[in-house]
Amino acid sequence: MIILSDDIKKQLIDLYENKGVRIEGNIIKLLDTTDDPVFEEYISKCISEDKERQKKRLDITKQVQTQNNELNNLNEENQRILEELQQSLKDLEDQRMTLEVQNRELNEWKLDNLRLTEELQNEMVNSEKSRIEAEEAKRHAENDLDFLQKRNQTELISIIVRVALWVIIGVGFITTGVYIFTLCMGKDTQVISAAWSNMFGILLTNAFSIIGTIMGIKYATKDHS
Amino acid sequence: MIESILLVDDEDLFHLVFEDACSLLDISLSLQSVKSSDEAAGMFKKWYENHENDQKPECVFVDLNMIGSSFDGIELVRKINFEYGNHVIIGIISSSNDSTEQAKALQAGAQFWLVKSDEIEPRLEEFRKDYEGYKKRTQPFKIYR
């Protein structure tokens, strides 16, 4: 304990009474007040006022601490919300990136599809052209075949006609020669003349029949060629 | 009355609350506050290496979790008790009331666990009553809820 002189004690008490200035803090607890009721009262007042002031300060500090804790909690909540928002933004950004990639892929597919469609259309046009060309070629081939067949037919008919005409002409000449020989030899021509005329008539009829047939065939096949 | 107290807590406002509460309750004559376990460990290391046991506080209150410290309060208690020569009454002051942490603190050599809240004075009052037991090492580990 600290023992103060009576003079100092008096000065301290006067200072408190006249100007309200007092000693404070833990030093008060170390001052000896034995056998001095006046100084003891002064120290009691100092301690009492000190405690009152400390109590007030403690209450305020506690309030500030409570408010500080609330603010900290709010700050933590804000921080959490901010982090959530940042995470959401990040997720959105990721989704946007994914969508962009998908969109780019879709555009590429679209371009590929367009190109393929164009190619298909070209192929279809080419195919149609080829089909038309094939049909044209087929028609030409059919025409050529028809023409060939007709020509062969015509040639065959021509050969037949020629042979037939030569047969007719030959028979005519032979019959006529035989008839003339008979006439010149002075033989009986009754049978041969009848046979000649019959033969000649038949031959002429056949000849005209053949010519008519040929002309008919030619007429019938004229349009198709 | 406790001659000197060291408070290790990262919260500045709690330093003021604790100081005023101690002063109001006439618990201590002097109180020193530090903000990190590293700072407190540094002080104890220096006192231990320089054999300055008289410089050590009589009682140490250590917060459990301190922002800006490289180790927690329990580790600081362990270091003071087992590395820096002990000679102090030491315990945890925390808003946590986790029994696992309390068991760890006891294992590290803490003598008490004081739960921090708005009304700290009644707990400090009770602590003051038990203080002599802590001094004589007769008081078992106690939790002030």
Structure description:
The complex is a heterodimer of chains A (225) and B (145). Chain A has 2 domains: 79 residues; 79 residues. Helix content of chain A is 86%, strand content 0%. Chain A has 3 helices and no strands. Chain A is rod-shaped. The mean pLDDT of chain A is 87. Chain B has 145 residues and is an alpha/beta fold. Chain B has one domain: Response regulator (Rossmann fold, 3-Layer(aba) Sandwich). A 6-stranded parallel sheet of chain B has the order 2-1-3-4-5-6, sandwiched between helices. At the A-B interface, α2 of A face α1 of B.
Q: What spatial order of strands do you see in the largest sheet of chain B?
A: 2-1-3-4-5-6
Mind telling me the C-alpha Rg of chain A? 73 Å
Number of domains of chain B: 1
Backbone structural class of chain B? alpha/beta
* Overall average pLDDT of chain B: 92
Low-pLDDT stretches of chain A are none
Q: N-to-C SSE series of chain A?
A: HHH
Shape of chain B: globular
Distance from first to last alpha carbon of chain A: 151 Å
CATH class of chain B: Alpha Beta
Helix content of chain A: over 70%
Please state roughly what percent of the residues of chain B sit in beta strands, choosing from under 5%, 5-15%, 15-25%, 25-35%, 35-45% or over 45%: 15-25%
Tell me the domain tally of chain A.
2
